[in-house]
Amino acid sequence: MQTNFAMTSAAHGVFAAQAVSDEMLLQSIADGEKPAMHVFYARHNVRVYRFILRTVRDQSIAEDLASQVFLDVWRTAGQFEGRSQVSTWLLSIARFKALSALRQRRFENIDQDEVMEIADQSDDPEAMLDRNKTGALLRTCIARLSPAHREIIDLVYYHEKSVEEAGEIIGIPQATVKTRMFYARKQLADMLRGAGLERIAA
Q1: I need a labelling partner for 162 at 20 to 30 A (CA). Which of 9, 41, 91, 180 fits?
Q2: Considering the domain 125-201, what is its CATH architecture?
Q3: pLDDT grade for 178, boundaries at 50, 70 and 90
Q4: If pLDDT is split at 50, 70 and 90, which confidence band does 30 have?
Q5: Are 30 and 78 contacting, i.e. CB atoms less than 8 angstroms apart?
Q6: pLDDT over threshold 60, residue 118
Q7: What are residue 64's phi and psi, to 5 degrees?
Q8: What gap in Å lies between CA 105 and CA 114, rounded to an integer?
Q9: What are the angstrom distances between the C-alpha of 80 and each of 19, 32, 93, 116, 172?
């Protein structure tokens, strides 16, 4: 199922010309304003797609599930109570759909071998090469973590979620998040040291 929420010129003129918060956009979406939905989609679709892709590891399925997420937003925006950040609420919906898809396909392992990175344009070629090698090794190490530990690393480091927000998305106590973070970082550090990257592992 593919749904086109691409931003229109009208949406750009009404919403994108000013700094409209996610909360304001959701209120407008709840009121049935399609331009607000276009802007919301443009703002969050890449994040949602990548988050789902790292779980299901299938581009077609990830695209379909991302479309379903934004359809849910369109239908249920009025149910957002503001108890968390909009992005936290959005990733919770995405996580539920991704895990549901995995259960339907009877996947037993959730693997992650792709972490999207943005290269620093100020780096010289040698520095960029070093960054790429380090990034590739880090992706390999992350892929070797357990599903629960990979999920924590993804939320905290790549989606910049707090311990409280990560716990809300996954549905576990903050203490459990901290425990998983501790062991995930320890395992990553051990693997990186074993690969000769003491500086990053420290």
Answers
A1: 41
A2: Orthogonal Bundle (1.10)
A3: very high
A4: very high
A5: yes
A6: no
A7: -65, -45
A8: 21
A9: 20, 14, 12, 29, 20
Which residue do the tokens 């809300």 mark?
168
Specify the residue for token string 């203490």: 175
Is residue 52 a contact partner of residue 66, using CB atoms and an 8 Å limit? yes
Give the integer Cα–Cα distance in Å for 142 and 17: 39
Contact indicator for 36, 11 with CB cutoff of 8 Å: yes
Rounded to the nearest 5 percent, the helix, strand and coil shares of the chain are 70, 0, 30
Single pTM value for the model = 0.63
**CA trace torsion 20, 97, 112, 157 (10° rounding):** 30
Could you tell me which of 77, 83, 70, 68 has the C-alpha nearest to residue 30?
77
Domain positions in the chain are 9-105, 125-201
pLDDT of residue 5: 61
The neighbour count for residue 155, using CB atoms within 10 Å, is 24
